[in-house]
Specification:
Layout (H helix, E strand, L loop, with lengths): L32 E6 L6 H10 L11 E6 L9 H6 L1 E3 L4 H12 L9 E6 L10 H5 L8 E8 L7 H6 L2 E4 L6 H11 L6 H11 L7 E4 L6 E4 L3 E5 L2 E4 L2 E3 L6 H14 L1
Parallel strand pairs: 1-5, 1-6, 2-3, 2-4, 4-5
Antiparallel strand pairs: 6-7, 7-8, 8-9, 9-10, 10-11
Amino acid sequence: MNSAPQVLRVNDPDESESAKIKPLHENLPQPPALVLMISPVKTGKSTIISNLLLNDNFYGQEYFDEVNVISNTIANDTTSRFLMKAFDCKDHYDDSYIDSIVERQKKLKKEEQPSMAVILDDCLGSIKREAKVNHLASRFRHYNIQLLLISSQNYRKVSPVIRQNSTNVIIGSPFPNQKELGKIAEEFGDMFGGQNNFLKIYRIATPERYNFLHLDLQENPPKAYKNFETLIAIGGKIVHGDLEIKADENNITEDIKDESNKQAEI
């Protein structure tokens, strides 16, 4: 009798096919990626985006064949002035922009499609539930969109489709709305040892203003970083320098209540 059928690993693509793409640091979102950035006002969202797209230590200007930036605030944000000089930028969201990108890519064979980055910064307040970007979130890879980055000040305004398809999440600081932070902990806590442990990871990652927590959900188990620099946790195990703390799922509810009570006292 023949031996039982074995599932074999699919070979990686020929490296020569992607020779023009420079290697990225492993701490960065690895394309194709849907990066969801949740960060309150004045916490450095534009600075992070500018570094990702303009700084050669990140993606830089040559990584993608085409970069499209859609931002309701870009015309009034001096931090984004270099983005406006370097890339195609729109100062408001419209479904026609997404339609145009998709239709252009669909007309080309897969190997002829330019690699794209599509950035939507602070647009979700003006995007309806049936907006085309919500559909794009589940299909961006089909159109060779290597980076789809969506930022919002309010996590609960992000559609479930975008949240469920996110490969990376960036959470800014300071985060004054503790109820909102609790919702984020509720969503991602199970991946990192429970809600209480998730909040602990967030605090380790954000001791100073403009620090942020980066969640790499493409990894299994997922990883958490302080900025793009320091590995904080692998799944529920916190590893920070010489510090190793096993996930503690006790008193999760009490911890979140404490955070909410602090907000109420303020």
